[in-house]
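Hey, resending since the last one bounced:
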Amino acid sequence: MKLSIVATLYQSAPYVAEFHRRASETARQLVAEDYEIILVNDGSPDQSLALAIELTQVDSRVVVVDLSRNFGHHKAMMTGLAAAKGDRVFLIDSDLEEEPEWLGLFAEQMASRSCDVVYGVQARRRGGFFEQMSGALFYRAFRMLTGINQPNNIVTARLMTRRYVDSLLLHKERELNIGGLWVVTGFRQVQLTVNKHSTSPTTYSLSRKFSHFVNAVTSFSSLPLVLTFYSGLLISVSALVYIVYLSVRYAFIAAPPDGYTSIIASIWLFSGLIIFFLGVQGIYIAKVFSEVKRRPYTIIRQIYANPGQQDPLQ
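The structure tokens again:
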């Protein structure tokens, strides 16, 4: 098979039919009928699954992978990539904010640049001032803390070769961050500037964005642990210097004045730092705990396909 198109479904009912039509037309222009469309239902609460199953009845190239519950966007994407069999794999969101027609542009770039990945980046991040500022801070902090050069405003849409997808699937993290994995997998990757539309409200709240940032950093870097060590060392040295200062002052100048406020403030400060540092270490311990259990990062409830279509996971 020459091409696999992979997309996830979550609150995607208004877009499923249109996505299928546009993705199919673009795929036919590129590889005729030698393609498949894999839709991964990530526990969508609306009618996305029912509509996708209807597509399998009228189009033998559509395969629906129904997960047993909502596992998250990144894990659902990895499950879809594992099911893809094409020589090239086009990963894209199904909400039409990313255009299925980009496939043709990406394919041209892949052929002319002889690369393994062509991925999209937004010319300008959507949303207001806070959305743009928080996005810029996320990418800058992520690069600084992990050393991974992930581009700003990257989107889901990307065209990948078979060897790149096979290498990407070698990563077996349970608490995965696919954005970082895209980069660390390597190979020759080329970015293409795109204009992402705004057709649906975001499902990422501020708390989810912060949780995503913490997971991304702790998945690829031990720098926060190193920083806690140096912070503790700095605090200890500072305390030692202050003790020496007080001893010299008491011996040669005068007894230091009593200070209830300064004592309480110091206790609160250092108690907070201790709890914070323990929390950072706790996050890493929790990730180790999650990894050693070796639980599958998704569970497939059922695969829907035309009776003549081979099970993509066999």
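The mean pLDDT is 82.

Sorry for the duplicate.
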